[in-house]
Amino acid sequence: MVQINKEKLLFLRTKLPFLTAIIVLLLIGIAVVAFKRSGSKDVSADDVSKFTVRRGPLRISVTESGTIQAREQIILKCEVEGKTTILFIVDEGTHVKQGDLLVELDSSNLLDERIDQQIRVQNAEAAFIRARENLAVAENQAKSDIDLAELTLDFAKQDLKKYVEGEYLNERKEAESRITLAKEELQTAEEKLNWSRKLFEREYISQRELQIDELAEHRTKLDLELSENALRLLEDFSHPRKLAKLESDVKQAEMALERTNRKAKADVVQAEADLRAKDSEYKRQQDKLTKLEDQIKKTKIYAPADGLVIYATSAKSEFWRNAEPLDEGREVREREELIYLPTATAVKAQVKVHETSLQKVSVGLPVRVTVDAMPGSVFTGYVAKIAPLPDAQMIWQNPDLKVYNTEIYLEGEGSELRSGMSCRAEIIIEEHNDAAYVPVQAVLRVAGAPTVYLWNGSAFEPKKVEVGLDNNTMIRIIDGLKAGDIVQLTPPLASATVETEASDLEKIRPPDVDEQPPAAPPADKPQLTPQQSQKMRENLEKMTPEEREKLRKKWMEQKAPQSEQSK
Fold first, then answer.
1. Residue 512 — very low, low, confident or very high, per pLDDT cuts 50/70/90?
2. How far is 24 from 342, CA to CA, in rounded Å?
3. Per-residue pLDDT tens for 356-394?
4. R_g over Cα of the chain
5. Are the C-beta atoms of residues 66 and 351 closer than 8 Å to each other?
6. pLDDT tens across 246-263, in order?
7. How far is CA 445 from CA 27, 36, 234, 337, in A?
């Protein structure tokens, strides 16, 4: 039953302003209809609602409802990501000391995640160590391969130099020496043969000895030919071939060294990249573990200072949210405010000022605050802060409602006040000891000037007045009326609309039309009545941009001949 009454109270507090506005509009409509039905009949002062101008004390103020809050307080929020459940919460209104446990949130899922994360960290650490050792092996292997390739290149160059500057020259000299020896032996053999032939002719030697000398001379000729052929083979075939092979070995060794260098660098770069990746992964997993440890710590909220525990749901005045009170088992979300800990006894009133009253209210104005829970007590204060932008939450609830959060600092310690108490703040704009005033509905604007309908003894006639500020009920009259004058409470609203019709039509006139004073209408063409002007304006508003452009061109064409005639 209590819950149902709370819901009804919540509904009434939320919808009451809208219902009031609808009722006021209906009453205004009924008054307008009644005035139109009355037509232009003569009436007396007793036939209409009237008000006698009064003079006396007048207070211009703006009254708004709000809640009492601590001026200085520590706001404790849920810092656990996502949503979690309250396992323990200290009772509201408890005086706690610094370090006392205030809230404990469910950490079972976080504990399970921590175990899994510890395993991931260990795997990432092992992969990091393996990558670090692989980098060392790759650098060592690269150095070994490069040294071997450089040594092979040095050997190839040495072999080439050894052959060009040593072996080839030795082989050539050996072949040339053999030719020289063969030539000398051939000369000796030829001389000996010639001498043997002479001796044979004189029969000093036998035929056998002559044949032996001839055979020796033939052998030396063959040796000379072989030596010359060997030198020719060396110069034409063996030397070019071996030289080309040794030069190719040098080039191959140089290219092998380049390939080895590139491969070694690639292997080292790959190993370094793998090490950096494993290092980053290892650090990322460590950061996740650290974050989980931090989240687990944040599941327990301790009092940062001494103070009185106030639940955030009790202190806030956002009735439209219908927030569930804090209690064990309730689910809370990240960044949700949980507990307020006032750090001082100074208090403030948090109210929402409607945009229509914003021009009146300014910082520093005095304020009288009454608290619903303390009837008869009045607290004084001043406007301390006014939000530069309207409350976004109220705009989301009702886009047509613009209110600005305003803080009012109350004087004194306010030890008897409690956060969350409902209050009403009267912001005093002006206070006059002697001022003339009438109800706000008695004043309307005709052609932009404040006007009232004053009783002259036989009828109500319009009279321009100078007005000041109003308090939504009474408006101050600076000049134009005196105490005892009788004004009409239901002035004819049509008088205000008729005067503005010309300006409304002026707004829809094409912008490129030359500014000229309006010509007097022809005698055979009567002026439009207010009803016809209103109908014309409604038709223009219903037109599409294309239709308005066509109308403008037609208007210009009709106006051109008139301008030529005037010239």
1. very low
2. 43
3. 888 889 999 999 999 988 888 899 999 999 999 988 878
4. 57
5. yes
6. 889 889 988 999 999 999
7. 20, 19, 128, 49
Task: Check: CB of residue 407 under 8 Å from CB of residue 348.
Answer: yes
Question: If DSSP codes are grouped into helix, strand and coil, which group holds residue 15?
Answer: helix
* Look-up of token digits 């001026």: 71
Is 60 exceeded by the pLDDT of residue 525? no
Q: How far apart are CA 267 and CA 277, in angstroms?
A: 15
Asked if 338 and 113 count as a contact pair (C-beta separation under 8 A), the reply is no
Nearest Cα residue to 336 out of 320, 319, 312: 312
Tokens matching residue 47: 């036939």
Q: What is the CATH number of domain 46-105+307-487?
A: 2.40.30.170
Helices then strands, each counted (H, E), the chain: 10, 22
Q: Over the range 312-331, which residues count as b (16 or more CB within 10 Å of their CB) and which as e? A: bbbbbbeeeeeeeebeeeee
Closest-CA residue to 93 (of 322, 300, 340): 340
Can you tell me the distance from the alpha carbon of 300 to that of 78, in angstroms, rounded to the nearest whole number? 10
Please state, in angstroms and as integers, the Cα–Cα distance from residue 483 to each residue in 445, 469, 480, following that order: 22, 18, 11
Contact assessment for residue 74 and residue 305, using Cβ atoms and an 8 Å cutoff: yes
Q: Taking 70 as the threshold, does the pLDDT of residue 151 lie above it?
A: yes
- The pTM is what? 0.51
Q: Considering only the C-alpha atoms of the chain, give the largest distance between any 2 of them, rounded to a whole number of Å.
A: 198
Angle at 449 between CA 443 and CA 455, to 5 degrees: 45
Neighbouring residues of 16: CB distance < 8 A, sequence distance ≥ 6 = none
| DSSP type of residue 89 | E
Q: Which amino acid is at 388?
A: P
Fold category of 111-280 in CATH: Helix Hairpins (1.10.287)
The 3-state secondary structure of 129-196, one letter per residue: HHHHHHHHHHHHHHHHHHHHHHHHHHHHHHHHHHHHHHHHHHHHHHHHHHHHHHHHHHHHHHHHHHHH
Give the start-to-end residue ranges of the domains of the chain.
46-105+307-487, 111-280, 493-566
SS3 track for 442-506: HCEEECCEEEEEEECCCCEEEEECEEEEECCCEEEEEECCCCCCEEECCCCHHHHHHHHHHHHHH
CA distances from 212 to 11, 188, 195, 462, 512 (A): 149, 14, 13, 171, 141
With a CB cutoff of 8 Å and minimum separation 6, the contacts of 544 are none
Do residues 480 and 466 lie in contact, with contact meaning Cβ atoms separated by under 8 Å? Answer: yes
In this structure, the number of other CB atoms found within 10 A of the CB of residue 128 comes to 21
The DSSP bridge pattern shows strands 422-439 and 54-70 to be antiparallel
Under 8 Å between Cβ of 41 and 459? no
* Confidence band, pLDDT 50/70/90 cuts, at residue 86: very high
Contact 68, 409 (CB under 8 A): no
Q: Residue 46 pLDDT more than 70?
A: no
Straight-line distance from the first to the last Cα atom of the chain, in angstroms, rounded to the nearest whole number:
85
